[in-house]
Amino acid sequence: MLRYHLKELIADKEFKEGRRVTIAEVAKETGINRMTLSKIINHRGHSTVTDNLDKLCNYFECPIERLVTHIQEEE
Fold it and tell me: In this structure, is residue 74 part of a structural domain?
């Protein structure tokens, strides 16, 4: 399963810039639908396209490893 760190990246950006960063702002700046971002944040194991991952990495200026972690599922 993939675990997304979108909440953490938003919190880091808020702290660094000293302002509130909304999902609507991220959606506007990246071109990713707000509902898609909400699902990435709130639905465990949500699947998204690699283009969205690329846009998020560009927006947050981070490597993919900061955005996504692979979690080994127990069998």
Answer: no
